[in-house]
């Protein structure tokens, strides 16, 4: 599967942000505003915002930036999914999910992405790496979340 290939059902955005921790909040706000405008359920908005936060934080922490000390954040809101991606200048190692110990302060980000996404992956380009994820969107009229009765 190639994310973003010709699917533009509800809209796409490409944002270049400084490779600094403050950019995570900027990306979350811009993404959430687009998803809310597209009529996406609040629970999905929170999931997608968490995924983009993890991907962007990993790029800031572990990768080189693109020219101009920037990172590219992209999202595409489609009928049944939201596709997000973060592109950076690459790093010596490819992003991979690890098993963090209970006492470890980090190392859980890609596990969160795995849990919330239908699929995710990494692709190489001439400029570096792109880490992408596809988060499912329930169909219109569906319950936004399941409730459990005790």
Concise overview:
Helix content is 30%, strand content 25%.
Could you characterize what this model shows?
- It is built from 3 helices and 5 strands; from the N terminus they run E-H-H-E-E-H-E-E.
- It is α+β, with helices and mostly antiparallel strands.
- It has a 5-stranded antiparallel sheet, with helices on one face.
- Helix 2 runs antiparallel to helix 3.
Total count of helical runs of at least 4 residues:
3
Give the neighbour order of strands across the main sheet.
1-2-3-5-4
Q: Outline, from the CA principal axes?
A: globular
Largest sheet: 5 strands, antiparallel
Strand content: 25-35%
Oligomer: single chain
Rg value: 15 Å
> Uncertain regions: pLDDT < 50 for 5+ in a row?
1-8, 144-150
Q: What structural class results from the helix and strand content?
A: alpha+beta
State the end-to-end CA separation. Answer: 40 Å
**Number of beta strands:** 5
User: How confident is the prediction overall: mean pLDDT?
Assistant: 81
Helix content: 25-40%
Order of helices and strands: EHHEEHEE
């Amino acid at each position: 599967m190639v994310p973003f290939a010709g699917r533009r059902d509800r809209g796409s955005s490409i944002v270049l942000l400084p490779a600094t921790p403050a950019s995570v909040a900027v990306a979350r706000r811009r993404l959430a505003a687009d998803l809310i405008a597209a009529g996406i359920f609040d629970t999905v908005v929170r999931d997608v915002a968490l995924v983009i936060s993890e991907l962007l934080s990993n790029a800031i922490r572990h990768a080189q930036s693109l020219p101009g000390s920037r990172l590219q954040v992209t999202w595409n809101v489609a009928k049944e999914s939201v596709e997000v991606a973060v592109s950076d200048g690459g790093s010596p190692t490819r992003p991979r999910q690890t098993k963090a110990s209970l006492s470890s302060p980090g190392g859980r980000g890609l596990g969160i992405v795995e849990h919330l996404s239908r699929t995710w992956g990494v692709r190489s380009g001439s400029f570096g790496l792109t880490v992408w994820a596809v988060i499912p969107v329930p169909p219109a009229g569906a319950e936004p979340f399941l409730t459990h009765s005790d």
